[in-house]
Each structure stands twice: as structure tokens, then as C-alpha cells.
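Hey team,

Filing this mostly as a record. A colleague (T.K.) asked me to run one chain through the structure pipeline before their review meeting, and I want the input and output archived in the tracker in case anyone asks later how it was produced. No errors, nothing strange. Just documentation.

Input sequence:
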Amino acid sequence: MRLKTWTTLLLAALTSAGAAAQSVKWTIGWTNANGSSYAETIKTVPARIEAATKGRLKIELYDTLVAGAEQPAAVRDGRLDGSFAVSPWLSAEAPLMNFGHLPGLLTDVALYQKMLDPLLRGEMARVWAAKYGAVQLATGVFEDQCIISKVPLHTVADFNGKKIRVHNTEAAALMRTIGAVPTPVPFGEITPALQRGIVDVVMTSVGTANGFGFPAVAKQLSIWRIGTVVPWSFVVNQATWGKLPADLKPVVEAEFRKIEDEHFARHAAFSKDSIDRLVKAGMSLYVATPEESAKMFAPANVNSVYDNWYALNDKAGTDGRALVKKINELKAKL
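Output structure:
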């Protein structure tokens, strides 16, 4: 009887210890961009990863534990296991990641997706590894970008003198060139800032425009294809990834690739639905004409943006010119 009891206790202890050894929890940062495809995709991740790994990996999402712009450094330092990091956060340390913001370079998300595995995924992964000691497991983009204003912005000249909240360095450089005044506003305060006149114009994604209630404070919705590709990446600290059981790694990688593929497959429909909802809520839609787009992206306006980006990359130790050349060469083949 005593032997049976000790055997039962030993088996229970070993089973419990084995389960504990195989159970992993990741603390992951993100920014709650309400209404965006980024947020809608991320909200599905914890349940999907737990199901794919049969409960052996659990992801806990935190949008306030570490401020958005500080999350990549927190991943590097081990304060976060990972982050759904967005490219504008990286302007200072890793400007190469902002290639999607360069005016006229990538204006089509479907083309961007096609370029991931031949080129861009590897370029981004190297930066994440070198600058942040992180492993990139997935990438995505925000839905179509738009410009929200109280007055129509139908020509390049209409931007002159306007105070504009932009979300990336490259758009800010372009706006300065055409006479607008880039004005910093914290992400969570962009709607009241427009309502109170702190800014005249807000650049954001069409999903976020819905999520933040812009139709209640402004009625002009413009599509100018500025900074069309605003990428995000799911990255995990290298040490955290290294500790994950070897048999789980391919399972996690495969599930994140499925999540990524589904995210891109929904992009066009999500963007269209978001625009339709804004119009239904009373906003007037304007899509920049080819003539005005040509003026916006004229060499006189964009050359300085590229030069500024190249200089930022030189300072950071990365080769922006080489990447732009590779992108243009690949575009010509696709």
C-alpha cells in the first residue's frame, strides 16, 4: 500500500513538473490603435497561439505596460518578451525600417507583400536582430492611410500653412517641403487636438479614423497615398525565443505565418469597408487626382525627403540607398 502511494505521488509530481516545464508565458507589448486592422489582427493572437500550441505557449498583451515608442528597446533589454512594433517608432535607431513611408516608392500593399520573401522580410529581420536582439516572427501593414481635415484638401497648395499631425518622419519631411507645419501630438490625443484646433489636419489610417471617432469632429476625408505602407512587425527577444522548447518553434512560426497571410488577405476589403463607414458617417471623400498626385510627388518635393532618410540611415550605420535600389530593381521584375 505504501509503495503504491509513493508511486502515485511520484508520478503526479513528475507530471506536474513536466507540465510546468513545458508551459511558457510571453509578455507582449502593442499599441491599442482602436479600429485598425493592426489591432483587429493582434486581438486574435493569444487564442490562436494557445490553441496551436495546445496551451503550452500563452501570450499576454499589454498596451500600457511600456509606452509604444519604448517597446523595441524594452524587447532588447528583456523588459518585454516581445512587441507588435510599428515602424514609425524606429525612426531614430532603425530608420531603414521606414522604407514604406518614402513617397512614391511603395504605393501598393499587394506589391509590398509580394516583395517580402524575395527581399524585405530578410532586410527587416537583419535590422531587428542587429539593433534590438530580436527575432521577427510576422509582419503586416496598417490599412490605407488617409488625411482628415475640417476644410477640403484637394490640391497641394491647400496644405500650405496647415498644422498637420503625421505619424512618421518621412511624411513630416514631405509636408514641410509643401509648406505645411508638422505638429507632434500624442497618439491618444489626436481627435481632441483636431477638434480644438491644435492641429488642422491629421494623417492616420482609415480604420483608426473610425475607431477614434473622427467623423464627429471633421468632415473631410482625403486619400493622397502618402506613406501608403506603414509596416508593423511581431518580434520576440532572442533569449526568450531561444528558451522556447524546440518542438514548439516550428508550430509557433507556422501559426504566425497563417496570421500574417490572413491579415494581408483582408487588407483591401478592410480598407474599403473603413472608408465606406466614414462616408456613411457623414464624411466627404476626395481621392487625389493623377495631376495633383504628380505635383505632390514631384522630384522638387520628394528628393529632400529621400536625402533626409539616407542621412538618417548613414548615421544609424545602414545603407538606405542600397535598399531603395534593391526595391526598385525588384519592382521592375514583379
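Quick notes for T.K.: Confidence is low (pLDDT under 50) at residues 1-20. The chain has 15 helices and eleven strands.
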